[in-house]
Amino acid sequence: MEVELEPRVKALPFKVKATSRESPSQKALHVLDTDLRTHWSTATNTKEWILLELDEPCLLSHIRIYNKSVLEWEIAVGLRYKPETFQKVRPRCEAPRRDMVYPTNYTPCRYVRISCLRGNPIAIFFVQLIGVSAAGLEAEFQPVANYLLPHILSHKQDPHDIHLQLLQDVTSRLLVFLPQLETDLSSFPDNPESNLRFLAMLAGPLYPILHVVNERTTSKPPGNITELDVSKSSQLSPILTVSSNFEPRRSRSASPLILSPYRSIVFRPDAIFVLLRKAYKYSELGSVCRMASKIMYKLINPDTDHDVSNPQDEVTSLLEDKLNLELSSPFTLVDYSNLFGDEFRMPDEQWDCSYLNVLDMGVVEEGILHVLYSCASQPVLCSKLAERSSDFWAALPLIQALLPALRPWVSNSFDVVDDTFSQWKQPIVQQALSQIVATATSPTYRSLVHACAGYLSSYSPSH
C-alpha cells in the first residue's frame, strides 16, 4: 500500500515486549523482519495480542501492518508500560487488505499493542512503526507535547520545523531534571504559554549551564575524598596573596582547598534551578546568565565557529552545519527568537580564544557559577555587569584565580539555597565579585587581565 510520508518521518527501531502466544516455528520476533518467508502466528483464531516497545519514545505518525490472516484487530499506544492506560488509535475494525498503513497523527508513544480479535489463524508477516524520535518524551511531558502538537501537525512537510525541534530539545535535555520541574509540568495546562517559555529558556539559551551541572552531578568522585574532607576544606580561609615580583604565592594560612566539584553546593540541581528561575524573572540577572551560558558553550565546544543553528536558514546549508556541529559538539543550540523574542537570541560574540590555552576549564566553569550566584545576591553589582555582559569573557582568568574566594563558607554541602542566596553575601565573596565586575566593565582592567592571563592561571587549584 503506497502512502506518501512526510520527509521528516522514518521507520523506527523497536522490539517485541510481550505476546499472548506464539507457535514454535512462527515466533513473535518475526514481525521485526520484512522477509515474507517468515511471520508471527499463534496457531489460534481469537483474542491474541502482541506488544511492541520502541527503542525510545516518539511521535508516531503511521503504523504499517503486513497482514497474513488476521480478520479483525484494534491498535492502542501509550508512553508508559501500563496497558490499561493505552490510547486507542484504531478502534476495533476489520483488516481489509494485506498491506495496511494506519495514520496515528503524531501520537506520543513508546508502546504499541496490536490486539488480534479474529483470524484464520491469527498471523502477521511484519510491522513497521513510522514517526519521529523524541528522546526523553516521558509521560510527565505529555502536556507539553499536547500543546505543541497542533503546530507540529501544521508543519508536517517542514523537515526542520522549529516546534518539533523545541519539543525534542525540551524532552531530551530536561528529562534528568524532572524532579525540579515537577511543579511546572503539573501546572502546565493552567498557563501553557508562560510555562513553555520557561522550558524553552532552559532547553535553549540556558542549557549549557544545565549541561555542566548534569555532567558534574553524574560524574563519579575521583579518589577517596570524603564528605568530611569537603566540610573541612570549606571552613578554611581562602586568603591569597601576590608578591611584588609577580611570582604567584599563597599565604601560609591558606589551604589547597580540595573541594570536589560534584559535591560543591554550586552544582546542586535544586540550587541551580533557584538561580535560573530568578534569572528568568529578572532581566538583568537573566542577561548575565545567558552570557555566562554562551561562554560555557564555548568552553565545552571551543572549535565551533557557528555555534547556533537557525531553523529558518536555507535547508542545504543547515544540513551541512548541523552535521559539522554534531561531529564536534555534544549538543547544538537552536535560535528560538522567532517564537519567543529577542531574549532567546543567542549573542554572537567574537571572543579571543587564546584564553583557552591557559584556562582550567573545570575551575572556570565552577567560578562562573559562583559569579552568577553572587550576582543574584547583589542586584547592584549584577546591574553593572549586565550593562557590559559581553565583556564577561575578558574576566575569565581573574575568575579562575579568585575561585577560592568566590566559594562561600558553608556548614555542609546540603545547606538550603533560597532566592536570597545568602551564602554568597559573605564579605570575601562580595569583594571577589566586585573585582570581577570592575575588571569586566573597565577597558583598562581588561587589557591588564589579558596581559596577565597566563600568570593568573597559575592560581588554579589543579596546578
From TrEMBL:
Domain of life: Eukaryota
Stated name of the protein: DNA-repair protein Xrcc1 N-terminal domain-containing protein
Organism lineage string: Eukaryota, Viridiplantae, Streptophyta, Embryophyta, Tracheophyta
